[in-house]
Amino acid sequence: MGVYDIAVVGAGPAGMIAAIRAGQLKKKVVLLERNDVLGKKILLTGKGRCNVTNIASLDAFIERFGKQGVFLRSAFLAFFNQDLIDFLNKKGLQLKIERQGRVFPITYRAYSIVKILKEYLVENKVEVLYKMRLLDIKRKADCFQLHFGSKGKINAKKVILSTGGASYKITGSTGDGFQIARSLGHAIVPLSPALVPLRTGELWSKKLQGLSLRNIRITFEYDKKKIVSDLGEFMFTHFGVSGPIVLDLSANVISKLKEHKQIRLFIDLKPGLSHGQLEDRLLKEFKSQGKVQLKNIMKGLLPHKLIPIFICLLSLNPETRANQITQRQRSSMISLLKALPLTITGSLPIEEAMVTGGGISTREINPRTMESKIIPGLYFAGEIIDGCASSGGYNLQQAFSTGYLAGEKAAYA
Ligand SMILES: Cc1cc2nc3c(=O)[nH]c(=O)nc-3n(C[C@H](O)[C@H](O)[C@H](O)COP(=O)(O)OP(=O)(O)OC[C@H]3O[C@@H](n4cnc5c(N)ncnc54)[C@H](O)[C@@H]3O)c2cc1C
Questions:
Q1: Domain range holding 315?
Q2: Rounded distance from Cα 163 to ligand 1 centre (Å)
Q3: Structure pTM?
Q4: DSSP label at residue 400
Q5: Domain check: are 235 and 379 in the same one?
Q6: Do 77 and 173 fall within a single domain?
Q7: Alpha carbon of 396 to ligand 1 centroid (Å)
C-alpha cells in the first residue's frame, strides 16, 4: 500500500471535497469511511432534499456562525457558495433558490449531491476504502500511522480528520474524531446539542402534539433578557416544541439554561397585529356576533386544536356568549394571543440534534490552512470543528469550505 500523500478520514461533505481537492492537485489520496456508503448524513439533509448552501453574503455567513464566524473567513474565501454552485453545475446539476436564500438541487434529492461528489472522486483518482473505522493515529518519524483494528494500518504524510460531530449517530458520526484529536493533545470545546427541539414543562402543550403554526414569532426570556426569533414555523411535539424558529435559537437557549434556572418561551400568535389592532378586531367581532359562543368565535382567530386549551388557560367558559365577555377578559385574551407562555426545561439529547455544538477548539487550528497548530500535518474539516450556524444551508457550506481549504493546503504543504 505504501505511504499516501494524504489520508482523509470520514466521507461526509467535508471529507469528500477535501479528498477531491487534494486529488485535483495530483496527490495520492485515500478517503477512509467507516460505513459502506458515502455521505450518509447528506441523504438526510433538508428532509431528503438537501439545503446545500445559501446565497447570503460573506458577512452574513460569518455572522451566522457567531463567535466562530471570523475563523471561517479564509475557508469561505477559498470556496464559497457560488463556487459550490458552479462545482455542482459543472456536472449538470441545476440548483434552485428558495425562501431566505436557501439553495436546493432542482431534483429535490440529496442523492444528486452525493452522486456528483462520487463522480469527482473517481475523476480525481481518490482511492475510497469503506468499512474502515479509524481507532487511533500515531505519529511516526516521517508520517502518520492510522490504526483500523483488525483492518490494519495505513501510513500517510498528512491526515485530514473530517469525522463530523456526535449527532445522528446512525449516520456514522459518533464523535470518534474528538477522542482521537484529544489523544493527540487537542482541546475539545464541550459538546452540546444544536439545532435541537426543546422540552417544555406544561402538560397542555403536549396535548397539542403535531400542531404546526406558521408565520409566528417566539421570544425566550431569562433574567429580563430576551432572545427573539424571526417570523417562521413552529411546532408542538409530545415532549415540547420544535420547528425551524425553535431549532435556530436552540443552541443559544441551551447555553443560557446552564446559567439560568428558568427560561420562559412566549409565543406571539398574532405578530402582524399590535395590541391595539387586536383590541379593535375583537371588539368588532364580539359586537357583530354578540350571541355567538366564545368557542365558535375563536375559530376565526386560532387553529381548531388550540381553541379549548386557549379558553381553559383564560379560565373562561367556552359557552360564554361574545356579548358577555368583559373588558378585562378581552384584555387577558389579547395578552395571551400576543404571549402564550411556556416553560423550557431542557432539550432532546445531542443524538437527536441536527448539529453538534462544540468540537475541536478553533484556537488550535490555523484558520488559513485548517492545519493543527499542535500537530503539523494534521488538518481538520467540517462539523468536527467548534462552531455551527442556524439552519439555511450554512452548515453544509461550512463543511464544503473547510474541507476544500484543508484539501488544498494539505496538498500544497
Ligand atoms: C437530519 C439533518 C438534517 C440536516 N439538514 C441540513 C441542511 O439541509 N443544510 C445544512 O447546511 N446542514 C444540514 N444538516 C447538517 C449537515 O448535515 C452537517 O453539518 C454536515 O453533514 C457535516 O459534514 P461533515 O462532513 O463535517 O460530517 P458528516 O456529514 O457527519 O460526515 C462524517 C463522516 O465521517 C465518518 N466517520 C465518523 N467516524 C469515523 C471513523 N472513526 N472512521 C472513519 N469514518 C468515520 C462518518 O461515518 C461520516 O460519513 C443536517 C443534519 C441533520 C442530522
A1: 197-347
A2: 8
A3: 0.93
A4: H
A5: no
A6: yes
A7: 8
